[in-house]
Amino acid sequence: MAKVSINLATGSLQKEEIIVGIDLGTTNSLVAFINPDKNPQVINDAGKGVLVPSVVHFGQTGEVTVGNDAKNYLITDPQNTIFSVKRLLGRSYHDIENYKDFFSYKVIDDNTESLVKINVGDKFYTPIDLSALILKELKERAEHALKTPVNRAVITVPAYFNDSQRQATRDAGKLAGLDVLRIVNEPTAASLAYGIGLNPEETKTIAVYDLGGGTFDVSILQIQNGIFEVLATNGDTFLGGDDFDRLIVDYWIEKNNLDKAELANNRELSQQLRLKAEEAKKAFAHQSLVNDKIGDIWCTLDRNTFNELILPKVQQTITCCQNALRDAKLTVDQIDEVVMVGGSTRTALVKKMVFEFFGRKVHDEVNPDEVVALGAAIQADIMAGNRKDILLLDVTPLSLGIETMGGLMDVIIPRNAKVPTKAGRQYTTSVDGQVNMKIAVYQGERDLVKENRKLAEFNLKGIPAMPAGFPKIDINFLLNADGILKVQAIELRSGVKQEIEVKPTYGITDDQVEQMLMDSITHAKDDVSQRMVIEARTEGEQMIYTVERFLQKHGSSVTQEETAATHQYVEALKAALATDDKDLIHKKIDELNELTRPFAERLMDQAISHAMKGKSIE
Ligand code: ADP
Ligand code: MG
């Protein structure tokens, strides 16, 4: 057994241990590792093949088969053969209701809001259990091929997977006996396999086109400072290479005048036709005509006809690409790299249309079925500490808040808060007649926003002019399960409202989070004292503002001596504000307060007293 030591200070691995990269696919799964030559390599255990069909079969006597052997039961024993389990991971019955007929096995749940279960015979399995069986198969194959225990893995998921789906993937890994070091987005992994993102200096915009067996995803990524950010995702969860096969079968049914209903009852023949269709589709890579027979059924197809059959489907994927670009607010010429992923991108028409749409050569040098797993292996290598690169993170472990006066961070959602979560606070204006309020959203643990990470900024406009401290501005943070933060600002007296959405988890790396947390501990003492100075200064500035306003408005009701003394005390406070001495500032505030209280008490109207109590943003 390989020994591993862990550096307790950093929590990172000290010694090299094989960490595998796993592409847990809807149709096919596979596992890869970094070989002794430092190159990513897919695992082909005992010549069983690299791809493990993501299919699980339960036999009558309880035996479980995974992969190719299980795939053979898809047609002959559909109730006991689970395919496409990835579609159910982390999903509730409510989520999948609309396409439950897609599954030939029994998907159930009593409570529509909780996660689905699958009923096989008299047993119930969760999608996590089933995915774990696939992962276990991959783990065993890797152990067998590499002749060493494999306990750690990086697993990929689609970029659009939400927290629940990501967590389910982690749980499946755990159940399979794997410590899941990182969940990585599939398009990120694919880019890594092409070496994109490994140079921290480069800034690039990448389109990842992933056409698999039953799903199509396009992701627009931006890589900057070694950080991947997902700008947009689009796709069709029911569009893939299986559709091409189906179209071919339908074509043969028509050409041979077969009865579709009759054929549906003949499972064996249906299966044969489907396999033949897939074979034909693949053959077009090197030949232009397929001429075959199943019994007395002619299975003839030429490449041009095939292209005509699939054209509408491919066109659909291009529309998704257009939508993704639109959402990312980019044009095709702003895309620097196009990466092809998924077995179906081997189809020549797909390649041609993607090339034409983006107007540039696409990356297809790496085997498209393997590219995600290979990238996951590179990420695993990074996790093992063998590379210094930094990568996309899947959770937000940092506090979220806004900037208040003096550049201080006011935390609204503290770190480690459970998602979804909601929190809010009320603010007011600091200046009379203030009609705009800048709301700057930050992430981080430091007391000063400038030490934290800015996520967004917007202006709440159209606040009716009121004395300082009068407006009531509610700021609400809503962090949903997908990690999207909605920030809403509403002025309660007028109903003026504005909101934005940001995704705090995008574009930040584990290393950065770790660094930010470390920094907050290291600087805690300094931060606190700085915060105290800033708070004192803010209070002082607020005080001066209020007093000067008061003199302007009500100067006539104050004696000349009082006015002169006030100016003198204000100057003294101003001088104190220029220092970092919070005690001095407080002292001067108190003195000014003492001096002005009598006449302020005489006259100070509600507005001003309100302003002094209110917490202000600007
Ligand atoms: P997923 O990511 O959904 O698990 P894959 O990336 O493994 O799926 O893609 C599987 C699909 O790729 C299947 O529909 C398969 O028929 C198709 N495919 C594999 N090889 C070829 C090929 N040479 N030409 C066309 N399609 C292919
Ligand atoms: Mg895939």
UniProtKB/TrEMBL annotation:
The keyword rRNA processing does not apply. PROSITE patterns: HSP70_1 (PS00297), HSP70_2 (PS00329). SUPFAM superfamilies: Actin-like ATPase domain (SSF53067), Heat shock protein 70kD (HSP70), C-terminal subdomain (SSF100934), Heat shock protein 70kD (HSP70), peptide-binding domain (SSF100920). The keyword Chaperone applies. One of its GO terms (molecular function) is unfolded protein binding. Keywords: ATP-binding, Chaperone, Nucleotide-binding. It comes from the Bacteria. GO terms for biological process: iron-sulfur cluster assembly. NCBIfam families: HscA, PRK00290.1, PRK05183.1. Belongs to the heat shock protein 70 family. This is Fe-S protein assembly chaperone HscA. It comes from Mucilaginibacter limnophilus. The lineage of its organism: Bacteria, Pseudomonadati, Bacteroidota, Sphingobacteriia, Sphingobacteriales.
